[in-house]
Amino acid sequence: MKSQEMKSSLLEDMQLMVGDVSLENLVDQSKDSFQLLNLKKNEFLVKEGEVCQYFCYVENGILQHEIVINDEEITTYLALRNTFTASLNSFLFNKPSRKSIKAIFDCKLWVLDIETFRELIKTNEAFHQFYYNLIEKQICLIDDYRIDLLTLTPEERYKKLLTTEPHLMQQVPLHYLASFLGISSRHMSRIRKNIK
Prior knowledge:
Layout: H1 3-6, H2 8-18, H3 24-31, E1 35-39, E2 44-46, E3 55-60, E4 63-69, E5 72-79, E6 83-85, H4 88-93, E7 100-103, E8 107-112, H5 114-123, H6 125-151, H7 154-164, H8 168-171, H9 174-181, H10 185-194
Antiparallel strand pairs: 1-8, 2-7, 3-6, 3-8, 4-5, 4-7
Helix pairs in contact: 2-3, 2-6, 5-6, 9-10
């Protein structure tokens, strides 16, 4: 498959995020700056303590953001197909990452290194607008997620996930979802039996 064809979903998602038809040509130009990176299952985009080298778009696969507390792996985020992700604090400020990002399935990623990323932010109005809109959306999602953890019961969090992201149940192994929702795997199994 040609590189141009493989980037079509990246282009579509960037155009949706920019939302300005007059910038379409600049979106197309910025898309061409991304490079292909394939990760096999259980390979890392970044390990805790290392500097994250890439800002990436997930064309296929799922990336798990994880931290380890008391030898227990905890999922903090799942980057699904057609989403953008990075260990952003590490990537932007050249700092050791406080988390690892691992492929839980084989992944096809489109990535930018920090130099290319900064150049696009400075010189490409469409990419700048895309990034602004992306960060704004992510901040709202993180805020909702944190409030849900504090205000909803495990059962309510599971029901909300069923409603808002039903495809996750087919795509993501149960123990990753349980960890992401702040629920033990055993409790998650009980909840699933009671809610069908």
